[in-house]
Amino acid sequence: VPDALNDLKQRLAEVYDLEKASAIAGWDQRTMMPPKGAGARSEVSATLSGIAHERFTSAEIGRLLDELAPLEAELDYDSDDASLIRVTRRDWDKARRVPSELAADWAREAGKAHVAWLEAREASDFSLFKPALQRVTDVSLRWAEYMEPGDSPYDAFLDEYEPGMKTAEVKAVFDVLRPELTAIVREAGEPADDSFLEGDFPVATQQEFLAGVLRDFGFEDGAYRLDPTVHPFATTFSRTDIRMTTRYKPTNLRALWAGMHEAGHGLTYQGTDAAVARSPLYGNASLGLGESQSRTWENLVGRSLPFWRGRLAELQRLFPQLEAVDLDTWYRGINRVAPGLIRVDADEVTYSLHIILRFELEQEIVAGTLALDDLPEAWNAKMSDLLGVDVPDDARGVLQDVHWTRASYGYFPTYALGNVLSVQIWRAVEEELPDLDAQLEAGEFGPLYESLRRRIYRHGRKFTPLETLERAIGATEIDPQPYLEYLRSKVAGLQPA
Ligand code: ZN
Asked: What's the gap in Å between 246 CA and the centre of ligand 1?
């Protein structure tokens, strides 16, 4: 039996290497590659991921998993080996369910839909996107039929990003958030002034500041990079090779928070136990749990009063035009609450409402109760309902996000789950670290990182998101109340004195 386990580990390590080679090609494509490299690069990526998929879904892996079932039953559920066998079986079963022609159809239709979406968004005309969206949606619904039948047709989609989670569980959380968040937005009153975030901010100086922040957050020297890109992301090739990106503009400072967001993702990768590296267990338990940590470092740290009490003076030295901005004005500005049209520009309070809108529409699309012809109108009605905003055109409405070009239904809710989880977990950390505020002010992030590493990051993908949450803070379900309390008290504290 140990031979079978070693054999499995060796095969999985090779699959991991192939996937990481593909990821390196992808990172390079999005940060360094000259535009004319795109054609050849897509061949490289397709070849590498094709070989990785073929090796992973091989009958041999299935045979080894069968052979190892008795060992798995003997081992402690939480042990690395039992988890490796359990998670690999789950991934393998799912990967084997989908015929390769269907996966190819999906990739092809998604490619076409992406092109149609770019044109439609340029023309601000949903009707130019609709036929392609219909085709890629149809493929995704065919795909869903191969998955485990759930309680709701949406369950198969959600399971891709939140393993084991049910639509009904997410809906229960969002049903609490919906009325409460709309009420908080109303109470927020006049948006604060944040005009000082616009102006002349040389990129090299922004880079210098952000580099210092990341160092203090606890990244290991020589084990990460932060590079400029168009669409910020974070990826990892190993625990000691973490790649983060942000989008700098010389005319505003928003790259700082985008950078801290990606740093939060990066810290989860760095904090994973060495014992689960180079295996399917390396990574995050789910997108929502991963996002909870990017939001933690971006918002709970990077938009907090203690953090800036300790750091505003440094920023003012680098950008003297900020010397006139006092801490209160700064704090109110960077936490400005204002309903708007665009999700990616949304503040902490309104952000989840943008997600609830998409979650509700996606369920109807997947259930077939909303014809795509009626999608723009349904979108606009919900924007008015949830955020009190009138959508002037499709470009700033239903066409704003790239996600639906791949029919990635189930992806959006993970962003709002991340918001909710971030505060639920933060409460436990605060109890453990009574001096947390003073530490944030002093730029000492070690205790915070260590607490989160011990509670969450070290597990990687060993457990489902809810299993991880239980091990992290002892909770067995997602509780929206800490998040709502956090927002209420934050909004109250933002009112001008
Ligand atoms: Zn993120």
From this structure: 11
Question: Ligand 1 centre and the CA of 295: distance in Å?
Answer: 7
| Ligand 1 centroid from CA 259, angstroms | 10
Question: Does the pLDDT value for residue 166 go beyond 70?
Answer: yes
Segment 246-268, tens digit of pLDDT: 999 999 999 999 999 999 999 99
Instruction: Say whether pLDDT at 314 is over 90.
Output: yes
Cα 74 to middle of ligand 1, angstroms: 37
pLDDT of residue 165: 95
**DSSP line for 106-165:** HHHHHHHHHHHHHHHHHHT-GGGTHHHHHHHHHHHHHHHHHSPP-SSTTHHHHHHHSTT-
- Residue 35 DSSP one-character state: G
The rounded distance, in Å, linking the Cα atoms of 126 and 237 is: 38
| Distance (Å, whole) CA 104 – CA 83 | 30
The predicted-structure confidence for 319-372, as pLDDT tens digits, reads as follows 999 999 999 999 999 999 999 999 999 999 999 999 999 999 999 999 999 999
| Residue 39 alpha carbon to ligand 1 centre in Å | 28
Report yes or no on whether pTM surpasses 0.70: yes
Torsion-angle region of residue 407: left (phi > 0), alpha (psi -120 to 50) or beta? left
Distances from the Cα of 176 to the Cαs of 171, 172, 352, in angstroms? 9, 7, 12
Active site residues: 262
Residues 6+ apart with CB under 8 A from 133: 113, 116, 117, 372, 404, 405, 407
Which token pair is 422? 């971030």
CA angle 473–475–476, rounded 5-degree value: 140
